[in-house]
Amino acid sequence: MTTTQISPAPGGLTLDAVEALFGRPLLELTFEAAKVHRLHHDPREVQCSQLISIKTGGCPEDCGYCSQSAHSKTATRSEDRLSVKATLEAARNAQAAGADRFCMGAAWREVREGEDFEAVLDMVRGVKELGLETCVTLGMLKESQAQRLKDAGLDYYNHNLDTGRSYYGEVVSTHDFDDRIETLGNVRSAGIHVCSGGILGLGESMQARAELLFELASLDPQPESVPINALVPIEGTPLGSDPTVDWSEMLATIAAARILMPRAVIRLSAGRGEMSEEAQALCFLAGANSIFVGDQLLTTANPQPSSDAAMFQKLGLNPVRRG
Ligand code: SAM
Ligand code: DTB
Ligand code: SF4
């Protein structure tokens, strides 16, 4: 059996080596990833994040996959920001249902100082006080703003690279790949854990997927959390009629991510609703150790908590307990 040598040091990684991973027979790649997973993680433990959209729709950015872009005519309407009270109520419910992290998302291009940002800081303080891990995803961010979030008790900032550098401009024109990298740098400088991953199914090539993992794995330090999303096609967006991603592609990407980022928590993210339990089981075997829980992602549906509980039971998986 041939084994692809990957340098564990982010500095030594090459794009060719990442492409070679994608060229390996799927079950060999899965087996290799499963071995790496067991060296660094308890394979029975799954981190469970609950999402909430604290500001839905009306986003000025033109990300071609997103239901919330004002450039697309979708069923998602622009709404006012949620109150701190309603957000904390949702956090308490998420905690009672078994989530260990609460992730608050806003359809913003960037963070702006003012009433909305002050409210987000209050949300972070409140969620932290409940004993949940805190995560926000608010678009681009300056270092001073990242520092204020850190001081409020923020554990993770989610900001995905989404796809390969060479393909990014095909999907989004209102900001660029280096803007994403810059925000991740500001998050890191403030001492906040980095949550960054991507989406499959945007019409990207295998090479673009390899580029995405190459960029993520080359961040130094590597991200602590890596969400791998399958496109949820949204009617009215430029990518609304794209075919759904085959489970085998999610599996290969998760396995490659596990090998390249051995210590990261890899999240099997959007798109689980289209995957069988068997396909999800293979992803957990290959090193996925996080999911979004709750019946709603941001604007689209997620599997029912009861079906996730049944799947965990069958597979002998346990949610992380905190608080
Ligand atoms: N506005 C912020 C930003 O762009 O970073 C935060 C919210 S945005 C909705 C967060 C992430 O959700 C995106 O980077 C993308 O990875 C994911 N996402 C959005 N729409 C999606 C879809 N239709 N299918 C799968 N993932 C999606
Ligand atoms: C991430 O990587 N996936 C989440 C979270 N980070 C913010 C968002 C998924 C969104 C799926 C489409 C929707 O519900 O609007
Ligand atoms: Fe706005 Fe984020 Fe959606 Fe892009 S992905 S349109 S920045 S909410």
CATH architecture: Alpha-Beta Barrel
Q: What's the number of extended β-strand segments?
A: 10
Measured between the Cα atoms of the first and last residue, the distance is 45 Å
Unreliable stretches covering 5 or more consecutive residues: 1-9
Q: Tell me the helix content.
A: 25-40%
Strand percentage, roughly?
Answer: 15-25%
CATH class: Alpha Beta
Summarize the structure.
With 323 residues, this protein is an alpha/beta fold. The protein has helices at residues 15-22, 26-40, 84-96, 115-130, 143-152, 168-171, 177-189, 206-218, 247-260, 277-285, 305-315; strands at residues 45-55, 101-106, 133-137, 156-158, 193-195, 198-200, 225-230, 265-268, 288-293, 318-319.
Q: What report would you give on this structure?
A:
The chain has helices at 15-22, 26-40, 84-96, 115-130, 143-152, 168-171, 177-189, 206-218, 247-260, 277-285, 305-315, and strands at 45-55, 101-106, 133-137, 156-158, 193-195, 198-200, 225-230, 265-268, 288-293, 318-319. With 323 residues, the chain is an alpha/beta fold. Helix 2 (26-40) crosses helix 9 (247-260), helix 8 packs parallel to helix 9 and helix 9 runs parallel beside helix 10 (277-285). The longest helix has 16 residues, at 115-130. It is globular, with a radius of gyration of 18 Å. Bound molecules: S-adenosylmethionine, 6-(5-methyl-2-OXO-imidazolidin-4-yl)-hexanoic acid and iron/sulfur cluster (SF4). 6-(5-methyl-2-OXO-imidazolidin-4-yl)-hexanoic acid binds next to strand 7. Iron/sulfur cluster (SF4) binds at residues 59, 61, 63, 66, 68-69, 107, 109, 139.
